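User: Protein folding is very new to me. Would you mind checking the protein record under this note? It all follows right here:
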Amino acid sequence: MNRFLKLLIPGLIVISAVVFVLFGLDSESLDVSSTYTYKVVNAYPHDREAFTQGLVYEDGVLYEGTGRNGFSELRKVELDTGNILQTRELAEEFFGEGITVYGDKIIQLTYLSNVGFVYNKETFELLREFNYPMAGWGITNDGKHLIMSDGTQKLYFLDTETFQQVRHIEVYDRGVSVWRLNELEYVEGQIYANVWPTERIARISPNTGRVLGWIDVRGLLTEQDYAMPVDVLNGIAYDNEKGRLFVTGKLWPKLFEIKLIPAK
């Protein structure tokens, strides 16, 4: 490298930094994604008969939606014990999918029936039904819109009153579409999505659809946990007040509180 370039490079670095500041170019603007592992903070009992399709933490309890025809339910669950405090069964024709709590209501999707249900959060009374044209997988909300997945690379933003689509985003990582987006949770301005049938969770920009990071949660279950059949990772809940992140899976015997750790 000649002397001129040696003198020029430090100046270019400074100029680049100024441009990043002036034009707001941060990690959201760059085509990069981070990877996180985890530390288990707590492990709680989980009903291993629960084919978990949706999970929400609010007001000190878990709300859980379960699947499979003839076994689908909406549940209120005590975190520390795993005790089921309240249930509502779905008709056998429905395969329950994701749930979200919006205000004083719980919204639950079904898989291939193109029907969603709206319940009173306290009583589980059915308030109304609504329809959608795609398959139902996961659902969450950002306080303004419902956000829904259908197993493709798309996430749909729905009006909270009419349930009509307002817009959609396509999820990608470094230019490649990310498919099979499943259970969703809105966490501090990002959409967390289970990617079926992996043990990875995508952290997605709700504005652009770009994957901002990946959470690798392999190894949560022990050999003893596999003594009875288990299915895939599916279930993300977030405690907004205390910043706690919970994950579980279909037919898993445990629900985990985890702390994210940047991978080296």
